[in-house]
Prior knowledge:
By secondary structure, this protein is α/β, with parallel strands linked by helices. It is built from 14 helices and 21 strands. It has two domains: about 1-215 and about 405-464, Ribonuclease Z/Hydroxyacylglutathione hydrolase-like (Metallo-beta-lactamase, Chain A, 4-Layer Sandwich); about 225-400, Rossmann fold (3-Layer(aba) Sandwich), CATH 3.40.50. The strands form four sheets. It has a seven-stranded mixed sheet. Strands 7-8-9-10-11-20 form a six-stranded mixed sheet, covered by helices on one side. A hairpin with a 2-residue loop joins strand 17 and strand 18 (about 390). The protein is globular and about 70 Å long.
Amino acid sequence: xxxxxxxxxxxxxxxxxxxxxxxxxxxxxxxxxxxxxxxxxxxxxxxxxxxxxxxxxxxxxxxxxxxxxxxxxxxxxxxxxxxxxxxxxxxxxxxxxxxxxxxxxxxxxxxxxxxxxxxxxxxxxxxxxxxxxxxxxxxxxxxxxxxxxxxxxxxxxxxxxxxxxxxxxxxxxxxxxxxxxxxxxxxxxxxxxxxxxxxxxxxxxxxxxxxxxxxxxxxxxxxxxxxxxxxxxxxxxxxxxxxxxxxxxxxxxxxxxxxxxxxxxxxxxxxxxxxxxxxxxxxxxxxxxxxxxxxxxxxxxxxxxxxxxxxxxxxxxxxxxxxxxxxxxxxxxxxxxxxxxxxxxxxxxxxxxxxxxxxxxxxxxxxxxxxxxxxxxxxxxxxxxxxxxxxxxxxxxxxxxxxxxxxxxxxxxxxxxxxxxxxxxxxxxxxxxxxxxxxxxxxxxxxxxxxxxxxxxxxxxxxx
Length: 464
C-alpha cells in the first residue's frame, strides 16, 4: 500500500492524503491551501493525479482546509462517492456554496484592478460545481462498519473537533491481505461545549495523525463562560458595546451556547445580543438539526430548553440594512460577527464604528495570525487601518482563549495512551502541524507506538 501526502504535510492547511492499493485509489480529505494568494492558487489549481482516477473521497469534517477543494475535484472529472457523516455533508454544502460566492466576487474585483494584458482571473470552481458535487455525498452513521465493496470497510468515530467531525477507520485489502489504517482528521479536545469527547481507537497498523498543537497546553474552556459573564456585566453597567469577531463554524455556536446557559441560569445581564453573520445563521440551523450528535450536557439542557441556540435577548441579523442599523444603535449591546481574525465581513464595519469609544469592548477569541487586523488589535496597536483609514483604538481589547477545537499536549497524551492500551499502534505519520509541534508530538508518543513516528513532507510517498 502506498500513501502520498499531498497537503497538510509540514503545515496546517490543505489536508489531502492519497491511499493506493492494487485495486483502489482513495483520497482522505480534499482541503483548500490557504495563505499567500499566488502560491495557494497554484497548489489548489492542480492535482497530483487524474481526478477521474479516484474511486472515492472520505471526508473527515467540514472545515475549508479539509473539504474546500472538493468542487474543484468535480470540475476536473471526479465522479465517485464522497463518504462522511450527515452533519458534515450539511455543513460542507453551506461552506462550499459560500466559498464559490467569495471566489466569484474576488475574481471580479481583481479583474477590475489588473491591466488588460494580465491573464483573466478564474475561480477554482463555481456554485454549479458545488451543486453537482453535493449529489455525490453519501452519509455514514458513526460507530458502524460500512462495507463499501468486497475490499473496503469504513467506520467513522467521533473526533470531537467540530459538529460532524470524524476519525476515519479503514480496513482495505491490498494484494490479498487486509490492512488497518486510521486517519484522525482534526482530533478534538475533551470537555468542549456542545461536542462529545473524541473516541479512542483499538489500535491499527497505520495511523495518520494531526499534530497542530503537539507542543502546547490550552486554557480550560469552562473558564470562558465566567469571563463572558463579567464582560457583559461591565458593558451593561457602562452602556458599552461588546464586539466579538468569531469564526462562523464552531466558535460562534459555542459562544451562543454559553450565553444561552447564562440566560437559563438567570445570570445574563439584560443586554441585546445580535449574531450579524448570514453564514453563521445558516450553520446554526445545521446545529439545531443535529442535536443528537452533541454531548450529554446538551441532552440535559434539552430537557428544559428546546432550543440551546435561541433565547429572548438573542437576534439573528439577516439583511445588510439591519447590520447597518446596529451601528446607529445606542446603549449596551453585543454583536457577534465574522471573521474571527477581523480580515473581512461585517465585523470590520462594527470595529470601524466602535473602536474609538472607551466604553466599548472587543473580545478576541483564539489565535490571531500574523499581519491580520485581529493580531494588530491583540498586540494593542494604538491605531489600526480599516477600509483605507486609521482608527484610534480606545476600546478595551480582551483576549479569551479556551475554545480551540484541536487537541493539545494533554489531550494527545490521553488519546494515545488510551488507544495503545486497547491495541497496538504501528506506524504513525504526523501531519497538519508546523515542524515544531509535529516534532514535539513525535517525542511525546514515541513510547506508545511500535515504530518511530514519521513527519512527512509535501508530496512525499511511503510504501507501507
